[in-house]
Amino acid sequence: MRIFDPHIHMTSRTTDDYVRMADAGVRAVVEPAFWLGQPRTNVGSFVDYFDSLVGWEPYRASQFGVRHHATIALNPKEANDPRCRDVLDVLPRYLDKDGVVAVGEIGYDSMTSEEDSAFEAQLNLAITHGLPALVHTPHRDKVRGIRRSLAVIGASGIDSGRVVIDHLNEVTVELVRNSGCWLGFSIYPETKMSPARMVELMRRYGTDRVLINSAADWGHSDPLLTRATGEAMLTSGFGDDDVDRVLWRNPMEFYGQSGRLDLTGAGGTGLPFAGNSIRRGGSR
Amino acid sequence: MIRLDELRTALSAVTDQAWLADAVASVAVDPAAVELRFAEAARRGGRAELSVAPRWSADEAVRTLLLAALPVAETSTWAQNLYWHGDAGEKRAVLKALALLPVGDECLVLLHDAIRSNDPRLLTAALGPFARRLDQAMWRQAVLKCVFMAVPLNQVEDLARRADSELGRMLSDVAEERAAADRKMPDDALELLASIESSINLEACDAHF
Ligand SMILES: [Zn+2]
């Protein structure tokens, strides 16, 4: 089973996770820029974070044979903090980088006017930089948040086939399905979706435009739930080709729209230098 | 050391020549255009290893030609700007280009940054011809770091000439630590240590007579 996790925050994960993911068949990941739990107080904090998403983290992933790409954005939560607004000015340069395959995570947290303007501005950046967009949906008041997101997306003029709306569930799937956007599902140990519920959804709606991710981060989450979902599909009568489609070809197709996805070396042994220090835990 | 015209020739077989000519010309006229041209160089110019230019890839050669096309008075400022704002591939290209550009010691900070990093691609790129400007203490630390990271020492420019007795002492300390941990020292590091020790012995003999 080859797996492409289209939404996972590897910065918050350990090398043990990379080892377990590689063993489970994860060969490619996309890491969206998001908030880190602790609020940031200045633009420089974001610059260092973005630099790591196009510098150190892809290297770290490569040591385990995992190809790493990123999405870059000012997230909706911190879009509300006046100290972070100027992050919007540093985005264009990052959006030209090879490893950046979308603008994201953008969208809503509390649906404020500050979030409105950051969302609109960043959808425009997606258009001007030729990138797809990854849209986060709020935990609270989700249905209204999605309706409002779809309205903003429609008004922006971006092609809906270049947008994924993430963290969907049984209640919200139809809203997005009719919009032409891609459908993102985060499989979590407790909240959001479970592998069994995800299988039910695919039975009902098929695998077209479906992206399945672990959204694993610094919270209670599990980077192997993509694999668990693939296995649940197989035991419920889906075939290998269905699994390959949702766990590999769909994310490839979605992010491939950036023209920058490069899966050379995905699933390889990594290890350009035999005794390298990350795997061994050596020089710092 | 490779020359700019050799890189240009090497690219003729792998990179879209119309795009390259346009990119180089645009940078000469409008230096700020280098921001985007530099960022997109790999996806537009290719990533292939250049057979006629060992250890150079197409994107590194393209980025070097872009830097070389900038007005001389702005080259150093842009080289630093593109490094500090670059992803790992862009940083590596700047480091490799430095020796071919009209820049000076003000760019040593970039080498220092790369040597502090834990990314072997940056470390090796920092130890090319421009590293002759590094002071000896920093250079030894960088070589030692290669040994720790198992980076092949044949990537270090000028290694045999520059290796001194102090580097020999540092290497023999590493060898001792490795032996205590029952871990192997890389073969090329052992060879380097042996050659330093034999030249020290020669010097000692010379002094005796
Ligand atoms: Zn996320």
Characterization of this structure:
The complex is a heterodimer of chains A (284) and B (209). Chain A has a single domain (3-272), classed as Metal-dependent hydrolases (TIM Barrel, Alpha-Beta Barrel). Chain A has helices spanning 15-24, 43-54, 56-62, 87-94, 113-128, 142-156, 173-177, 195-205, 225-235, 240-256, 277-280, and strands spanning 3-5, 26-32, 67-72, 100-107, 133-136, 163-165, 182-186, 210-213. In chain A, helix 8 crosses helix 9 (225-235) and helix 9 packs across helix 10. Chain A has 284 residues and is α/β, with parallel strands linked by helices. In chain A, helix 5 (113-128) links the parallel strand 4 and strand 5. Chain A contains 11 helices and 8 strands. Chain A has an 8-stranded parallel β-sheet, sandwiched between helices. In chain B, helix 12 (165-180) packs across helix 13. Chain B has 209 residues and is mostly helical. Chain B folds into 2 domains: 1-102, no CATH class; 104-209.
Proportion of residues in extended strands of chain B: under 5%
Given the structure, what is the number of helices of chain B?
Answer: 13
Which consecutive residue ranges of chain A, at least 5 long each, have pLDDT under 50?
271-277, 280-284
Helix content bin of chain B: 55-70%
Q: What is the arithmetic mean of pLDDT of chain A?
A: 93
| Backbone CA Rg of chain B | 20 Å
Q: Just give the CATH class of chain A.
A: Alpha Beta
Most extensive chain interface and residues per partner: A-B, 22 and 22 residues
SSE order of chain A, one letter for each helix or strand: EHEHHEHEHEHEHEHEHHH
Largest β-sheet summary of chain A: 8 strands, parallel
Number of strands of chain A: 8
Low-confidence stretches of chain B: none
| Percent in strands of chain A | 5-15%
Distance between the termini of chain A: 35 Å
* Alpha-beta content class of chain A: alpha/beta
Distinct compounds present: zinc ion
Order of helices and strands of chain B: HHHHHHHHHHHHH
Number of separate helices of chain A: 11
Shape of chain A: globular
